[in-house]
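SGNH/GDSL hydrolase family protein
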Amino acid sequence: MKRLIVSFFVILAGVFVVDRIGGLLMGWVNRHTSDITAPKIKYLVNDVDEEVLFMGTSRCNFHYVPSIISDSLGMSVYNGGIDASDNIFAHYWVLNQVLSHHTPKMICLEVMDNDYVIQSTPFNTISFFAPYYGCNERADSIFRLAGTHWAYEVSHLYRYNAKAVSNLAGLLVNRQSNEDHGYLPGPKPARFPEVLEYDETRTDVDSLKLAYLRKFILLCEDRDIRLVFMVSPRYSQVGMDKYDVLKAVATEHGIPFFDYYTRGLFLDHPEYFKDVAHLWDKGARVYSAIFAHDLKEWLEKAL
């Protein structure tokens, strides 16, 4: 019995050592990889200092060209859109990390229906941010909300599980070679979208998501950060009520809402899209010029 107990503790100690050493090794990989997401998250957490910060998912990542927008506004711009970050819970995590060391003059948040509708797994991609568990208490609240904090507390190696393969591949293949202040150009597709489908308006509302959207807004208000909501073009038809829920929240807080989707921008230009949800680089550059003009016009009127 004594031998069994000793063996148990030896195995437990071995697992602990392997976990901590593995966590250190994957931490090094995460800091040095050139995959799509890790360098951007590291920059947002530690170094971002631009005056204007764009936030959102892949539609933000691929649609806003900082050099074009910066030239128009006369301010420094960083595209902090994170591929597959999914919804407001991820954006709230990013915002808290940024505000721990920097206060932008303006935040432009690309919104989508995932920011208010009910999802079966709303915290599915929060694991992308697990390498930074323990760095910011307010950001960590998202892990507690998701119920995953205990796993990251116990295992340092598990924190790197979600993006381990991508991080390792990023040591061999540089996915950041064409990066422009966070913007990653979408490649020209082999075929452009051909079928114009109808995007149904979702009426189911997740009250917790709206609560966190308001928390996001209040954090910006507390720091006197100008906040802008926008929806970039998509190759689908949609009803004018598509974003009424989000527009109501924006109106409630006096936030401008630039909606290029329901008005059908670029539906006559399928050659701007790499798929129904994303523009490729050519379309992104045309759109960025349009958005930059509209944003500058709004800023001049708001002064």
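thats it. The beta strands are 52-55, 77-79, 106-110, 197-199, 226-231, 236-238, 257-259, 273-275, 278-279. Residues 2-302 form a domain with the Rossmann fold fold (CATH 3.40.50.1110). bye
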